[in-house]
Amino acid sequence: MKGSPRPARRPSGAAREDRLFVLRRSPKHGKGAFASRRIRPGTRIIEYTGERISHDEADARYDDDAMEHHHTLLMIVNRKWVLDAAVGGNDARFINHSCEPNAEIHVERGRVFIDAIADIGPGEEITYDYAYEREEEDDDVVATSRYPCRCGARRCRGTILLPRD
């Protein structure tokens, strides 16, 4: 063997990737995304990626009634498509829920983005409201136990489901 391959060198002056966040353990849930520098409102943080599947396929993959602990990485794109970040997803899947979020989802031309809606300081966890839609028959006690919220916000709903009207 003549030697191991050398890593490709970055041309002088080439920009390094400027990540807006890093992943680390979250007090809210599992891993979380934490700002690596100040993020101003209106900043596009990341695109949410994953396998594009139908709503029927999403329902088949993630049967809430059969799951012991609810955990999905689905993002609704429109009436036809859903993204499953468990397949081909990126680090956006680690952004946790909060009832008082500092980011929100924007869907544009079939793509899903997470944008800042407040100043996010270095080291602050990036969050958005998952706003899961309630089924008509959802009982509040069942909803809170099946879809609990761990955000710690002053006005926490106790669940990641949308509030009742």
Give a structural overview.
The protein is mostly beta strands and 165 residues long. The chain has a domain at 21-48 and 90-146: Beta-clip-like (Beta Complex). The protein has 2 helices and 10 strands; from the N terminus they run ββββαββββββα. It has helices at residues 55-61, 140-146; strands at 21-25, 31-35, 44-48, 51-54, 74-76, 81-84, 96-97, 103-108, 111-116, 127-128. The strands form 4 sheets. Strands 3-9-8 form a 3-stranded antiparallel beta sheet, with no helix packed on it. A hairpin with a 5-residue loop joins strand 1 (21-25) and strand 2. The radius of gyration is 19 Å and the shape is globular. The termini are far apart. 22% of the residues are buried. The model is unreliable at 1-17 (pLDDT under 50).
